[in-house]
Design the sequence.
């Protein structure tokens, strides 16, 4: 009984922290309409800032707390509201979600850049020098008592704010109807600013309170928010009392699992994954109507032409040939992941770009593909590659069945919870038997991965594996482009536009979602197997949730509706990482920070930058003379680099400069022609293949 009471006290103390963080999350979501994935990262930055002031610089604890909670946290909240979230307020739910994911990635990268993750930073609990408070047979530390008292004070303060003050009334009014609240004299912008400031302050309080009980690690502290996510979902992202109740459930569950879970090799990860697993179950258990979201603005999905798809495939193979002939074998190992990760990024296009289903677990699914190939293709058996694709497709279909109830941020929450369960539990399991079949994942270590035996030719060198990955990316890109042009692609677009209308017109939601999830997961599994071949040895950490966020962000920056997003993401992820890595260890996290900053610029190009690139370079593509000159210049640069007569980076700069100059020349010689009205398409300008779909959508909207 004494042990049970001790675990209960620990669970209630942890629950108090989750309640504080979760209440800030609910406050932000209900007032501003934004689910802040970076809420935990804000608390993490507050904990690091508090350590820097109180321990690193020796400030008095009260002064350090005041500086973090009353100055830094409100300033950060105002920055997020004014600079990041207000520009995307009029965009869709997916765009606002992407903005907070970019903020999460940027905060983690910034913390790792400023504070060396290899240096331990212990943080003492509050009043650690005082004796514990005795409550019968159990004891409560002063830190635990302070934590629970703060949670009660936060609950009372939020109730008073929302129900007894004008500002709280404005905030609740903006939740119900933002436009109507503005007509009655309320100020939605002021209410939003107040919500963001209070939300970030509550995240900071929770981060500072929980930091002494865990390692001061950027990724670990940021992902502790999963438990607060669970508490917020218990409150259906609206109710603060239910959020506090959910926090109690999560805190006690963690404490009791830590105390009473049997000790064996298979269950330790379950305790770590329990909040994410509970989050996934809570998302499925709550009423269906509560878990629906609707985009305010749908980004058009371009229709790729056959010529454009072939040019893209040729560009993939051409780039691979250039890299193989120009780079050394050591450099090929570093840059070889471009095409494998490009395949993983391409998996977002049919799922998120065409069908509008946001998934944050694609890299985790790619890890399954790498593991399946590593075990079954240990001796290069080619048949193991399609098996890896089929296994990951089955996993994707398994995710799709419960995902039928979810959309928008709830689907993103569910897939991120699935990724955390894989990271913390499934990938840590030792080998086990199921119906006499031996199942081995990472087996609590690493898995060796080799190249395939392709029709008697064993592919083992970095150059051979790079060409294999490039060929797979080219074929996959052609397949996705053909999918978009076909009837099934149009069905996916209709599914994205309106699930209700899709079902009303006879579409089968379950079948469509299962098929697109399976297809996307199969592509990701292929990319994971190819990525494992490049790395030769894979570990679970390489496929966790945080590692996959930058790839997702780059795919969004490129434009999820464009088939070229795969190649763009592979180049944009690998190239800056390798170039900045050459500057020293201090720049290792700089590339992730730059990716996050680019993601935060989403408001300026919600449809992706590939469309802008196509429009800017179209004049050059239409000018055969200048295009031929560009091809000749690139061929000369390639030849000089292959002969190693001139520095490769110098030739790259010359090639880019020549291409830019020719593009400007082509644009200056082309007179822009105004786009005629829609009803004159085919009369005042030639009819295009994609015009039929655009006309149909415009007619339906009218």
Sequence:
């Amino acid at each position: 009984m004494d042990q049970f009471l001790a675990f209960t006290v620990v669970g209630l103390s942890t629950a108090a922290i989750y309640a504080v963080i979760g209440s800030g999350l609910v406050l932000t979501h209900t007032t501003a309409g934004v689910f802040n994935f970076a809420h935990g990262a804000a608390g993490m930055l507050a904990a690091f800032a508090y350590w820097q002031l109180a321990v690193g610089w020796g400030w008095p604890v009260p002064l350090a707390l005041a500086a973090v909670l009353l100055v830094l946290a409100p300033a950060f909240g105002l920055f997020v509201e004014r600079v990041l979230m207000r520009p995307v307020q009029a965009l869709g739910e997916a765009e606002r979600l992407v903005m907070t994911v970019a903020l999460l990635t940027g905060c983690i990268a910034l913390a790792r850049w400023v504070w060396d993750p290899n240096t331990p930073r212990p943080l003492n609990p509050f009043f650690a020098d005082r004796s514990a408070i005795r409550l019968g047979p159990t004891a409560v530390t002063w830190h635990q008592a302070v934590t629970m008292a703060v949670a009660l004070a936060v609950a009372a303060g939020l109730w008073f704010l929302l129900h007894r003050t004008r500002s709280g009334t404005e905030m609740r009014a903006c939740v119900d109807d933002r436009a109507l609240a503005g007509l009655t004299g309320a100020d939605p912008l002021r209410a939003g600013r107040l919500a963001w400031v209070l939300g970030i302050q509550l995240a900071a309080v929770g981060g500072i309170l929980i930091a002494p009980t865990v390692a001061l690690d950027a990724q670990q502290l940021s992902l502790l928010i999963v438990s607060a996510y669970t508490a917020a979902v218990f409150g259906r992202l609206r109710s603060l009392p239910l959020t506090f109740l959910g926090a109690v459930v999560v805190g006690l569950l963690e404490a009791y699992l830590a105390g009473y879970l049997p000790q064996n090799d298979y269950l330790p990860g379950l305790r770590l994954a329990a909040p994410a697993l509970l989050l996934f179950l809570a998302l499925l258990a709550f009423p269906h109507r509560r878990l629906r979201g609707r985009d305010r603005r749908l980004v058009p999905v371009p229709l790729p032409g056959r010529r454009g798809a072939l040019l893209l495939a040729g560009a993939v193979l051409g780039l691979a040939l250039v890299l193989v002939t120009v780079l050394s074998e050591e450099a090929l190992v570093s840059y070889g992941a471009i095409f494998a990760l490009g395949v993983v990024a391409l998996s977002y296009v049919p799922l998120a770009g065409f069908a509008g289903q946001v998934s944050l677990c694609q890299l985790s699914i790619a890890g399954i593909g790498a593991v399946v190939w590593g075990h079954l293709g240990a001796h290069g058996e080619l048949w193991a590659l399609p098996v890896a694709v089929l296994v990951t497709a089955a996993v994707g279909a398994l995710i799709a069945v419960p995902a039928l109830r979810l959309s928008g941020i709830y689907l993103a929450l569910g897939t991120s919870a699935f990724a955390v369960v894989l990271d913390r539990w499934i990938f840590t399991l030792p080998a086990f038997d199921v119906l006499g079949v031996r199942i081995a994942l990472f087996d609590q270590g690493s898995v060796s991965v080799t190249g395939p035996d392709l029709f008697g030719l064993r592919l083992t060198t970095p150059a051979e594996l790079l060409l294999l990955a490039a060929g797979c990316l080219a074929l996959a890109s052609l397949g996705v482009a053909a999918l978009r042009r076909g009837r099934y692609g149009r069905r996916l677009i209709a599914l994205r536009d309106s699930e209700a209308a899709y079902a009303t017109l006879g579409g089968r939601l379950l079948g469509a979602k299962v098929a697109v999830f399976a297809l996307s997961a199969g592509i990701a599994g292929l990319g994971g197997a190819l990525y494992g071949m490049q790395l030769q040895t894979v570990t679970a950490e390489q496929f966790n949730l945080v590692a996959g966020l930058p790839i997702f962000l780059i795919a969004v920056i490129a434009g999820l509706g464009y088939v070229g997003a795969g190649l763009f993401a592979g180049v944009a992820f690998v190239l800056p990482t390798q170039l900045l890595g050459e500057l020293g260890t201090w720049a290792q996290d700089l590339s992730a920070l730059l990716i996050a900053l680019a993601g935060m610029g989403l408001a300026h190009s919600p449809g992706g930058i590939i469309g802008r690139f196509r429009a800017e370079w179209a004049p050059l593509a239409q000018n055969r003379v200048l295009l031929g000159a560009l091809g000749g210049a690139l061929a000369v640069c390639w030849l000089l680099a292959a002969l190693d007569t001139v520095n490769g980076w110098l030739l790259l700069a010359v090639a880019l400069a020549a291409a830019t100059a020719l593009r400007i020349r082509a644009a200056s010689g082309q007179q822009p022609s105004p786009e005629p009205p829609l009803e004159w398409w085919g009369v005042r300008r030639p009819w295009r293949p994609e015009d039929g779909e655009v006309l149909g959508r415009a007619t339906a909207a009218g």
In short: The chain has 30 helices and eight strands. The CA atoms of residues 241 and 631 lie 66 Å apart. The first helix runs from residue 2 to 32. The longest strand covers residues 133-135.
